[in-house]
Amino acid sequence: MECSLKNLDEWSATTSLKFSTTKSKCMLFTKQQIQEKPTLKLGNDNLQYVERKKFFGVVFDQHLTWKPHINFLKGTCSKLLNLSNVLTMLSVLSEMLIDKALEWFRKTNHSGILGTTSSRSSVTSTYRVMKKSWRSRL
Fold it and tell me: Which of 56, 66, 110, 131 is least enclosed, having the fewest CB within 10 Å?
């Protein structure tokens, strides 16, 4: 393993590419308990061992179980479900507000200025346009 890391280090020097040792992590996959993990170096820096790492959306752990990935998916789904519930509540509240505003418009304009100076059909068509416009904005 050290030989491969040394080859990577030499290759990065010849190609003028650098590895970030702060972002590079290592993990020892095994079902057994390891008391002492080997020291791995990239350049002059030791690589940090981690117990789990997310790679392309999949969470891997050192024992190759699916439990951390399933917990990650559970948490993500829970957050999305909570967001969906909040958006549904907001939608219901906005519908109630629109209905109250339209009810106010209907009351004030049928007995107000539009109601006396305009025909009932023009008031109704204005009401429909306002209703459509408000609903499309939400």
Answer: 56
